[in-house]
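#structure-requests
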Amino acid sequence: MAAQQEATILVGKKPTTNYVIATVMQFNQGSRRVILKARGSAIARAVAAATMVRDRFLAGQVDVKEVKLLSDKITGQGGKERVVAAIEIVIERK
């Protein structure tokens, strides 16, 4: 089976270390690029996970290539539309 070139991890409410481990596992399975995506309050968790991967777990092996700041429109309770901040962090193997 060929190695997957790109993987996406959706960051949510779980502890930061879960996302760090998931990212490291994707690189160990052969991915060249991992994208961490988060919305709202999970943005801080995604940034922390990306920093931990880059500086501690895979130091010198990966770089943060791109950071995209976005806003998503979501429909909340009662059908009311809200704008929520979002982030995509692209990490690539050197």
